[in-house]
Design a protein that fits this description.
Elements (H helix, E strand, L loop, with lengths): L1 H18 L9 E6 L3 E3 L2 E3 L2 E6 L7 E6 L5 E10 L8 E7 L2 E8 L5 E5 L3 H9 L3 E6 L1 E3 L1
């Protein structure tokens, strides 16, 4: 009986920790329209319609894919907490000169966002100038 009591607290804590990453996941997909070309990881993506999915809920990888399937790339991300839930789903880009880089993805109702890990190309661009951030409305579909 004492062993059971000793295991209850650690198992409860473990179950809570396992649930935390799932709180800020993309339900099924996020869709957005990119009016101009942008970089996602080290891939240059042309202007057009895109979907973002998280194929594996246990991995911090997102698949950014053009709707027509001609361009796709996996990007790494990290969760970043915010104080309040997001009022809408959006995609933020970091602009350096005339180059846009996928920056963050926020999903309506969630109190965290997914910050895309900067690529080497973006890191080099950031050495020369501070980013100008701009946001596009997106749609989260379930």
């Amino acid at each position: 009986m004492n062993i059971l009591k000793k295991l209850i607290a650690p198992l409860g804590l473990l179950s809570v920790l396992c649930a935390i990453p799932s709180m800020a996941q993309i339900a099924n997909r996020v869709k957005f329209e990119a009016p101009s070309a942008f970089y996602a990881a080290n891939a240059k993506m042309p202007a057009g319609s895109y979907t973002v999915t998280q194929p594996d809920a246990d991995a911090n990888l997102l698949l950014v894919e053009s709707v027509n399937g001609s361009h796709a790339v996996f990007v790494e991300f990290e969760f970043v907490s915010s104080n309040t839930p997001h009022s809408q789903t959006d995609v933020t880009f970091n602009k350096y000169g005339n180059l846009d880089f996928l920056g963050t993805i926020s999903v309506q109702g969630q109190d965290s966002e997914m910050r895309i890990t900067p690529s080497k190309v973006e890191q080099n661009a950031a050495k020369a100038a501070a980013p100008e951030k701009h946001m596009l409305s997106a749609k989260s579909t379930g």
